[in-house]
Write a structure and sequence with these properties.
Layout lengths: L1 H17 L1 H38 L2 E5 L5 H12 L4 E7 L1 H11 L4 H10 L7 E6 L4 H9 L2 H4 L2 E4 L1 H47 L1 H9 L4 H41 L5 H7 L1 H27 L3
Antiparallel strand pairs: 1-3, 1-4, 2-3
Length: 302
């Protein structure tokens, strides 16, 4: 049995090296497919990180009438905190709002001069509200429409921010759908290319297969080398893809970190190396074996 397996692996390797040009094309398509599968894993985690960062900055503000005492505002804050959809509520006093504005625009003389001309503190006390999901802000706004609260509130800026909020929360969904669609297309292409490679190998070795049948070779011995050929293509493509993926992550990691200080894709890659390696090897071997099996069943009648 061990001798048979050795011969099968040897014949599979010889078949792979014999069809050099076709094998290169097959590996190239498989590399692209495997690379994309790995990129989707990285993209999903990176996009989740970026979206989470953006979500932390997304909120709606409720501004209260100037005559409303702080105690009433804090009561509203307490009521809002009881809503399941609300993630966080922060109270911003008039004084704090003025301080933030001055700090943010201290280098803009026109704005600072306008503030001096207005005199006093023109800002209103407010509550900054964060929800868990974009769709939940509407429910929070409806809650604030209650007559008990409406008499206290000057305005709610939800409708001004609604387009931005919805766009931010739709980024992950759109990116994932596009990635999955592209993956499906490339998987189909990879299977077809590998399938065609094995088909040509079977046709090229037609006489050898007939001789093997005549001398009584088993079906397993005849089919085995073609499965090995597909597996070799998948493993080789996975290793090439891993090398390219490593270099790209190493090169882009520091550059991306300039724009997103807490995101370094190379660090993420090293922490998840074995997961990514498993994804690439599994994808490569599965594509190779599936394509080979389909071609063998169709063109190799033994």
């Amino acid at each position: 049995m061990i001798t048979t397996l050795k011969r099968i692996f040897k014949l599979g390797w010889l078949s792979f090296t014999r069809d050099g040009g076709i094998a290169v094309v097959t590996c190239f398509i498989l590399v692209i497919t495997i690379f994309l599968a790995s990129s989707l894993f990285l993209l999903q985690n990176s996009s989740q990180f970026l979206i989470s960062s953006l979500q932390e900055k997304v909120d709606i503000s409720v501004y209260f009438k100037e005559i409303i005492p702080e105690e009433d505002i804090l009561n509203v804050k307490e009521e809002l905190s009881k809503i399941p959809e609300v993630k966080n509520v922060k109270y911003v006093s008039k004084e704090e709002a003025l301080k933030v504005f001055v700090e943010r625009h201290k280098d803009e003389p026109v704005l600072m001069q306008s503030l001096e001309e207005v005199g006093g503190n023109p800002f209103l006390a407010s509550l900054n509200i964060q929800a868990f999901e974009a769709s939940q802000y509407q429910k929070v706004t409806d809650f604030l429409e209650d007559p008990h609260f409406k008499t206290l509130i000057e305005k709610v800026d939800y409708y001004q921010r609604k387009p931005v909020i919805e766009k931010i929360f739709s980024l992950t969904s759109a990116a994932n759908k596009a990635g999955i669609l592209l993956s499906i297309v490339l998987v189909v292409v990879a299977i077809l290319v590998t399938f065609n490679t094995i088909r040509l190998a079977i046709l090229n070795q037609k006489e050898e297969i007939q001789i093997q049948r005549l001398v009584g070779a088993s079906n397993f011995f005849i089919r085995g080398p073609f499965l090995v050929q597909g597996t070799i293509s998948g493993i080789l493509a996975a290793l090439i893809s891993l090398a390219i993926f490593t270099l790209i992550c190493w090169f882009l990691g520091p550059k991306i970190e300039i724009f997103f200080p807490d995101l370094n894709i190379f660090n993420f890659f090293t922490k998840n190396f074995w997961t990514i390696f498993l994804i690439q090897i599994s994808t490569g071997v599965l594509l190779g074996v599936i394509s080979s099996t389909l071609a063998i069943r169709k063109y190799l009648k033994v």
